[in-house]
Specification:
Layout: E1 14-16, E2 19-21, H1 38-58, E3 62-69, E4 72-83, E5 88-89, E6 96-99, H2 102-115, H3 125-128, H4 146-150, H5 175-182, H6 199-213, H7 217-226, H8 272-275, E7 277-279, H9 281-297, E8 300-301, E9 303-304, H10 305-312, E10 316-317, E11 324-325, E12 330-334, E13 337-346, E14 349-356, E15 361-367, H11 374-394, E16 411-415, E17 418-425, E18 428-434, E19 443-450, E20 453-457, E21 463-471, E22 477-482, E23 485-489
Antiparallel strand pairs: 1-2, 2-4, 3-4, 3-15, 4-5, 6-7, 8-9, 10-11, 11-12, 12-13, 13-14, 14-15, 16-17, 16-23, 17-18, 18-19, 19-20, 20-21, 21-22, 22-23
Helix pairs in contact: 1-11, 2-6, 2-7, 9-10
């Protein structure tokens, strides 16, 4: 059975335009649901206006997102189509390749075995894996260690000795092929000198788990991590039975011809501990919720709380101070707060899972297209939705409903010079240029000063130029004009 995120956790379900919105289940319409707060709803509208333009201009087929607060998946949506040819909408339960987020599960497995006394972080990999014969090119340097692998500072090369990232076939190696290829490889750097991200290292970490536990990697991860956390929609390699069904169709990068094409279906095989997993927004939300729960409650659940804290702490800082890594987790700073998580990139997919422990806030973003940035989507979620959620929870009685009378002005307006989205915001309207790198910065606040007339509110509070809305013969809004120039309403 799947472990609930907590009694107040909700699932959402409402299809609108390109969006499948999972509306909260029974009881969530009660006062106290922060996602029903007008401040959060207008923040969602702003985020969606930005994302809608991003998806259209970058030709992104599908995006699924989720926002976790503490132990709740408080908000989740799917945008676009998991299978565009069949018109199948993306949802939070759509399955994507999560690529290198797989490394978090492998790292948890290694730390479980460490806590059980089966291995140590300073153990040499050659002592734990008898067949490890990769040449040490720097004899005076330290051995390749377990901690070096988890922090990507071991000196190992990035990849195994096969060209598995080369399309169109992406020939991922088996476990045996990885082992056979080690004798033809050597360390790239002396250990503990530089950060070098290594899929080879994390594939070997999967073998460390197998060697220490006496179980196959899939059996171990399923029984020791996924099942206890209720993550039944997560797989250690992409399940072929869900191809074309629950598993989204992936797409290539955007080419010079302005098109994306279907990516080759792949399975990572021996590289699965580094990049093979498939999952959903809802399941990765459980992984985030578990971490917040463990950090708050202490004790042990899958891992000991202190072990998780150890994994979240910085264990490696690159000499340029641009890269920080915990044990399996990437560590960074956002607005003076520590963020931990991992991203992923595989043929046809980009993903990210990020947690801000101090705020008990986490985001999951899954994208069915190479070259599209899930980190960009997460940063907008954190900057727009995060503060709105916090405000709604801290001061639930302050917000008032947005004026229904202004809803008719909302929509997408287009001219020869670009696009503007008009949204209700607080007690008035805002105009937002799209696409934009920062929708908050691209926002112009308006104040109504007459029938169908609004004026820009300057930074100093004074009123500037007028936004005049125009109606067609039926009385519906058909355009607006600024400085005498028109933009027509297209939706």
């Amino acid at each position: 059975m799947k472990r609930p995120l907590r009694p107040r956790s909700r699932t959402f379900a409402l299809l609108s335009l390109l969006v499948l919105f999972l509306a909260p289940t029974a009881g969530c319409a009660q006062s106290g649901d922060p996602t029903r707060d007008p401040r959060f709803q207008q923040a969602v509208d702003l985020f969606e206006a930005w994302l809608d333009a991003k998806m259209d201009y970058e030709k992104i087929p599908a995006v699924s997102v989720g926002l976790v607060h503490d132990q709740d998946l408080v908000w989740a949506k799917g945008y676009g189509y998991a299978h565009p040819d069949a018109g199948v909408a993306a949802t939070p339960s759509t399955m994507y390749s999560i690529c290198s987020i797989s490394k978090l599960f492998t790292s948890i497995g290694v730390m479980q075995q460490r806590d059980e006394g089966k291995l140590r972080l300073d153990d040499s990999v050659s002592d734990l894996l008898p067949w490890f014969d990769l040449e040490q090119a720097y004899p005076d340097g330290p051995d390749v260690t377990v901690e070096g692998i988890l922090t990507h500072s071991s000196g190992l090369p990035r990849e195994s000795a096969q060209p598995y990232w080369t399309g169109p076939d992406f020939p991922f190696p088996t476990r045996e092929e990885i082992i056979d290829g080690l004798s033809d490889q050597e360390t790239l750097y002396p250990g503990a000198r530089y950060f070098q991200y290594s899929n080879l290292g994390m594939a070997l970490a999967g073998q460390l788990v197998e060697q220490a536990s006496g179980m196959t990697y899939d059996e171990y991860v399923r029984s020791r991590i996924l099942d206890p956390l209720g993550m039944s929609d997560t797989y250690t390699d992409i399940p072929a039975e869900h191809k074309g069904d629950r598993f989204a169709t992936g797409y290539t990068r955007l080419g010079r011809d302005g098109q994306r094409h279907k990516a080759t279906f792949f399975q990572a095989r021996g590289i699965a501990p580094a990049a093979g997993f498939a999952s959903t927004v809802e399941d990765l939300a459980r992984l985030a919720s578990w971490q917040f729960r463990l950090l708050e409650d202490g004790g042990a659940e899958v891992l000991g709380a202190n072990t998780l804290r150890e994994m979240h702490r910085v264990h490696w800082v690159d000499p340029d101070f641009d890269t920080m890594w915990g044990l399996g987790f990437a560590v960074s700073e956002r607005n003076d707060q520590r963020t931990v998580g991992h991203g992923g990139s595989c043929p046809g997919f980009r993903t990210t899972l990020q947690l801000i422990p101090a705020k008990k806030l986490a985001g999951v973003v899954m994208v069915s297209a190479q070259g599209a940035s899930p980190d960009d989507v997460w940063s907008k979620m954190a900057a727009i939705l995060g503060p709105a959620l916090e405000s709604a929870m801290d001061d639930p009685g302050r917000a008032t409903a947005r004026p229904a009378s202004l809803a008719e002005y909302e929509g997408l307006y287009e001219s020869n010079w670009g696009e503007t989205v008009i949204l209700r915001w607080d007690d008035s309207l805002v105009a937002v240029r799209v696409p934009s790198s920062d929708p908050m910065e691209a926002m112009t606040k308006l104040r109504q000063t007459g029938d169908d007339t609004f004026q820009r509110i300057r930074d100093d509070g004074e009123l500037g130029e007028a936004y005049i809305f125009h109606r067609d013969e039926s009385g519906a809004i058909e355009s607006h004009s600024v400085h005498g120039n028109f933009s027509r309403k297209v939706r």
